[in-house]
From TrEMBL:
Domain F-box: 209-255
Biased composition (Basic and acidic residues): 182-203
Source organism of the structure: Carya illinoinensis (Pecan)
Entry superkingdom: Eukaryota
Protein name: F-box domain-containing protein
Length: 861
């Protein structure tokens, strides 16, 4: 069989639709392209035959054209079938600019068309547009005989010139189709209307067709599934297709009219449109009683119903049973019935019920499938429950419920696992005992703000979470009862004002809170699973003993009376004891090796003002903060992995030893009373001792030290400098400003510093610089400010003997050199780039400016 290709182009008079009303806009979008959103033939029927170039026999020619379009849409299979059935097309030529003769079509074409009309079209998913970027197209069909020994090839040329290219915003899929015709490439295109026969053995011509498809409704459905209702409504205004896609019931399963001013008629219309809606929220809507009755009568597939801020009559709760698929009912801040009558809630499939802040005298609930129920903050005097599968019950802040009513409601649900009765001031130990005996699977209990309970006679062995905030009856005797809850994981005892001590052996305890317990003095915990402890604002607390294999962080801030801390926590890594003013030096043993915290990395002891001598020997400690510990006079750290230490405010520190430590930098200039220092830091590169005016004994072993600032260390002597130079050979910058005890012996030791490039000897009592010239060959910066004992000959080696050949900067400010010495220095030391002099004669100014080097500072009168 030969081939069959068609090039189609549909001309659109305007690219964009002008703004019209919603109804007109829908009609325009529906009829604009094909007349029918799925019917390509409809578009062709709407065209003027002469516009398509059918001058003669327009109806027959148009029918043939439509048949070709239908066949192309159905694919090659239809073409083959049409050929086998003898559907032969005659050759014809169409031109917008010239008229031609057209042949009649064969009977097979009509049969093909009728077959196409009977096929099942998926009009919901497909809207094709066929388009090319050219203005003239050829349509060729292969005509095949049914007998089949030879094929009669007829070529029909359709030249359709379009005024403007057609482009749709919804065109998204692009597909290139290759087709070939069986006619001769140079087939005659006569304008006399006669058919030209092609040679069967001629060359096949391959042509490309670009097919563009609109956004299918399936794709729109997927895109619109990410939109909320407001955006869906906006999308519906774009076109008819989008309006129909956005109105799909899948997007309107949940009807949310919360706080919406919706009328009864509007709500009825929505219920008619979407009868399969499964979730409705009309909380805060006007006439809520009428709306909810319309809901239960119209939406039989309802699964979730949310109501609130209105009055719900007794008739609603009777009609509720008709919503047999209802799973969740949420009512908030509503008056049930007339507020004084009993309300019966009877439903066989409901599994979640929430009645919060509701006003009702008595409620009776019979829901055999109910699993979770909340009556929180509801104003009711009695609740009768017949819910054998209920697992979670929340009656928090139900102040009018009596102790007996709570007991009756709870014990009627033997499968309870969670009970919240916080702020129920009537609850007693008797009720808790009954619940413990009946609800053997109880795991969660919140009895906060229940002043009448003490738990002394209550046993809850399966309990995992216990919250007892502000329970005035909880005392140290209550801890014995709590110890029987051996599965307990979370315990909260905040604001238990009568609690004085806690001693618990709970292997599964993970979290404990003790906040604002004014009389609480002693804590003793043993739990291998303990991972979090919060103790705060317990002013009487003085002793803590904790044993745990899981605790990683311990914060005990502002425990002013804490004096004793014993820890056996193998995984503890962070401890914060800020403002624990009563801690003594014994705390150091707790956090040293062998003290029970072998993995401790960070320790904060800020403002622990009772510490006087701190000694830590830890193989794991990496950060230590002693900020504000003003009473410390001695510090000894043997922590090889210590990387950070903070000593701000340690004003009275006299002796310090860092041997060994992993510090890379250390600033001890904030310790003005330091007189003895020992450092063994293999990684230290920066050491600052500026202001340690009484420092006289030093031992610094830092092989990687590159910068040492010992300014104002007036007691530092030559032997200390010599020892430091020997043990720290990589020093590049050495600041000895105002170190009057340094002499020639110490300066000669600088020969051990081959990398020394910066030397500051300002404000010293040096008499000559010969030791510097002989020892510091790589020196680049030399500062000699206010060295008043240096005479004119002290600098002669610089410009007469070529000493310090690498020197670039020389500072002689506030010195006593005469004018002639300075002139000679400037004349011969051409390698200097920066100089500072003071005082200087004004006669030097022209000479200095003429020098080729740069003057960084020139001070003079």
């Amino acid at each position: 069989m030969k081939i069959w290709c068609c090039y189609l182009c549909f001309t659109r008079e305007e690219d964009d639709i002008e703004e019209v009303g919603e109804e007109d806009k829908g009609e325009v979008m529906g009829d604009d392209v094909f007349g029918d959103k799925d019917n390509l033939e409809g578009r062709l029927r709407n065209e003027d035959p002469e516009m398509l170039g059918f001058a003669e026999k327009p109806n027959e020619q148009l029918r043939l054209f439509e048949d070709a379009v239908v066949a192309m849409r159905d694919g090659a299979a239809h073409w083959e079938g049409a050929a086998r059935d003898g559907a032969l097309f005659s050759s014809f030529r169409i031109s917008r600019h010239s008229e031609g003769e057209a042949s009649s079509a064969s009977d097979g074409a009509a049969g093909a068309k009728s077959g196409v009309e009977d096929r099942d079209r998926d009009s919901y998913n497909k809207r094709f547009k066929v388009q090319s970027d050219f203005h003239e197209y050829n349509f060729s069909t292969a005509v095949t005989s049914k007998a089949g020994s030879s094929a009669i090839s007829a070529e029909r040329d359709y030249q359709i010139s379009q005024g403007s290219s057609f482009s749709s915003k919804n065109q998204m899929f692009y597909h290139t189709v290759t087709m070939a015709d069986g006619g001769d490439k140079n087939a005659s295109k006569s304008r006399d209307g006669k058919d030209d026969e092609g040679d069967e053995s001629g060359r096949l011509e391959t042509e490309y067709l670009e097919v563009r498809m609109d956004l299918t409704d399936d794709l729109l459905h997927m895109v619109f599934s990410f939109l909320d209702h407001i955006n869906l409504c906006q999308a519906a205004r774009v076109c008819r297709q989008w309006r129909e896609a956005s109105a799909h019931e899948d997007f309107w399963r949940c009807l949310n009219f919360e706080d919406r001013n919706i009328s009864i008629e509007q709500f009825e219309d929505m219920c008619r449109r979407y009868p399969n809606a499964t979730e409705v929220n009309i909380s805060g809507a006007p006439a809520i009683h009428l709306l909810v009755m319309k809901t239960v009568s119209s939406l039989r597939n309802l699964e979730v119903l949310t109501l609130g801020r209105g009055q719900l009559g007794d008739i609603f709760f009777h009609a509720l049973a008709d919503c047999y698929l209802l799973k969740r009912l949420n009512i908030n801040d509503a008056t049930l019935g007339n507020g004084i009558q009993e309300i019966l809630i009877n439903h066989d499939s409901l599994y979640h019920l929430q009645l919060t802040k509701c006003r009702v005298m008595r409620v009776s609930i019979r829901c055999p499938q109910l699993e979770t129920m909340s009556l929180k903050r509801s104003n009711m005097a009695q609740a009768v429950l017949n819910c054998p599968l209920l697992r979670e019950l929340d009656i928090g802040s139900c102040h009018k419920l009596s102790d007996a009513a709570i007991r009756s409601a709870a014990i009627s649900c033997p499968q309870l696992e969670s009970v919240d009765m916080s702020n129920c001031s009537c609850v007693s130990d008797e009720t808790l005992r009954e619940i413990a005996l009946t609800c053997t699977n109880l795991h969660f209990l919140d009895a906060s703000y229940c002043p009448n309970i003490s738990l002394e006679s209550v046993r809850l062995p399966m309990l995992t979470v216990l919250k007892l905030h502000s329970c005035e009856g909880i005392t140290s005797a209550s801890m014995a009862a709590i110890s029987h809850s051996y599965m307990l994981e979370v315990l909260e005892l905040d604001n238990c004002s009568l609690l004085t001590s806690v001693s618990l052996y709970l292997p599964h305890l993970q979290n404990i809170r003790l906040v604002h317990c004014r009389k609480f003095a002693d804590l003793n915990l043993w739990s291998i699973m303990l991972s979090s402890i919060m103790v705060s604002n317990c002013p009487a607390l003085h002793r803590i003993t904790i044993t745990s294999n899981s605790l990683q962080k311990l914060a005990l801030q502002k425990q002013e009376s804490l004096t004793t801390l014993a820890l056996q926590c193998q995984t503890l890594q962070e401890v914060d004891l800020t403002d624990c003013e009563s801690l003594t030096n014994s705390i150091c043993d707790v956090f040293s090796d062998g003290g029970g915290c072998p993995m401790l990395k960070s320790l904060v002891l800020d403002n622990c003002e009772s510490l006087t001598a701190v000694r830590f020997c830890s193989a794991s400690l990496s950060s230590l903060s002693l900020v504000g510990c003003r009473a410390i006079t001695a510090l000894e750290l043997a922590c090889p992995y210590l990387e950070q230490v903070f000593l701000d405010g340690c004003d009275h520190l006299e002796r310090a030893s860092f041997c060994p430590v992993g510090l890379q930098s250390l600033n001890l200039g904030i310790c003005p009373k330091l007189n003895a220092l020992s450092i063994d830091a293999p990684c230290m590169a920066l050491l600052e001792l500026k202001g340690c005016g009484v420092l006289s004994e030093t031992s610094i072993n830092c092989p990687l030290l590159m910068s040492l600032d010992a300014s104002f260390c007036s007691q530092l002597k030559d032997d200390c400098l010599s020892a430091t130079s020997t043990s720290c050979p990589l020093i590049e910058s050495l600041i000895l400003m105002s170190c009057p005890s340094i002499g020639s012996v110490g300066l000669h030791s600088l020969s051990c510093l081959p990398h020394l490039t910066v030397l500051d000897l300002s404000y010293t009592f040096l008499l000559n610089l010969q030791p510097v010239f002989e020892s510091c060959f790589q020196l680049k910066v030399l500062k000699l400010q206010a060295c008043k004992y240096l005479d004119d000959s002290s600098l002669e080696p610089l410009y007469k003997e070529g000493a310090l050949p690498a020197l670039q900067e020389l500072d002689l400010s506030y010195g006593t050199l005469c004018q002639s010495a300075i002139e000679e220095l400037l004349a011969f030391c051409t390698h200097l780039t920066h100089e500072s002099f003071h005082p200087a004669s004004s006669t030097l100014l022209p000479f200095v400016i003429a020098k080729p080097f740069t003057i960084s500072k020139f001070e003079g009168s």
